[in-house]
């Protein structure tokens, strides 16, 4: 983790960070940004640091190019606590049972419109951060479009999504798109060693398991139950592969009850398992990401022919496309 004047304490995503910083320094802010890419790459943290850099009193008083928020001033503290009066976080309402929704509703956008139609309380900018922007309901999308079509110089929108293809093109075309990319395993591993003080072996294992997603590696390192559950899901799936049709149907039935997001992430995990089997068949055991089931993966590699492995990978990809 570097922390110089061009970087925020985030693993990877330098291109995006440098771009956002230069937007602040040159005072050329887009009306709307859309951060997209797989989960666990730091989209929320980057949004937070961007907003804090924008409002940080220390930075603004300094009049310099140094764009690391101080985290000490009142503005920074309120932004990181998510209570700053001119920064609105919008996400699926899961508060109470009555109000809980599957989507970001039109009411939420209407309420937001009321807020952004007022002048910023701090007489500077207003920022709206929309988490899981793919879950905007259709009426909410239309209402949001109307707001985006009448740009107000003092309001900045930041939309975050793991699924760019679910964002209507009408919204996309009004946003500055920033793609978040997977991070090299070696960088994640050194972050785990240097910042979280993990032993080299564990840092290496967890960075392999995270497959380029630093947020996931950090969660594995900090929440043991999360790691154990993840490993159990993988081991269960490997067991099912080797078992008969009945247990395969059982698994399908169980998974069919899950949310779209869960199914999608399971499919992604399965693709990675078959990638591991493929790597094992090539003799590249060191690159296997699911290190804790290496013996099982090796025996599956012997069991499957190349043609069969390619077919399964193709089908998994197709399944994911259908689902999307
Ligand atoms: Zn500050």
Please write the CATH class name of the largest domain. Alpha Beta
CATH homologous superfamily descriptor of the largest domain: P-loop containing nucleotide triphosphate hydrolases
Helix/strand/pairing category? alpha/beta
Ions, cofactors and other bound molecules: zinc ion
Report the C-alpha radius of gyration, rounded: 22 Å
How many domains make up the 3D coordinates? 2
Can you tell me the residue ranges where pLDDT is under 50 for at least 5 consecutive residues?
A: 1-5
Strand order of the largest sheet: 2-3-4-1-5
Q: What is the fold named in CATH at topology level of the largest domain?
A: Rossmann fold
Can you describe this structure in just a few lines?
With 324 residues, this protein is of the alpha/beta class. 55% of the residues lie in helices and 8% in strands. The protein has helices at 14-25, 43-55, 57-62, 74-80, 106-117, 138-149, 169-172, 185-194, 200-210, 214-222, 224-242, 245-256, 260-281, 294-303, 306-323, and strands at residues 32-36, 87-90, 126-130, 155-161, 176-179.
Task: Summarize the structure in words.
With 324 residues, the chain is of the alpha/beta class. It has 2 domains: 14-179, Rossmann fold; 223-323, no CATH class. The chain has 15 helices and 5 strands. It has helices at 14-25, 43-55, 57-62, 74-80, 106-117, 138-149, 169-172, 185-194, 200-210, 214-222, 224-242, 245-256, 260-281, 294-303, 306-323; strands spanning 32-36, 87-90, 126-130, 155-161, 176-179. The protein has a 5-stranded parallel sheet with strand order 2-3-4-1-5, with helices on both faces. The protein is globular and about 65 Å long. Residues 1-5 have low confidence and may be disordered. The protein binds zinc ion. Zinc ion binds at residues 56-58, 69-70, 72-73, 75-76.
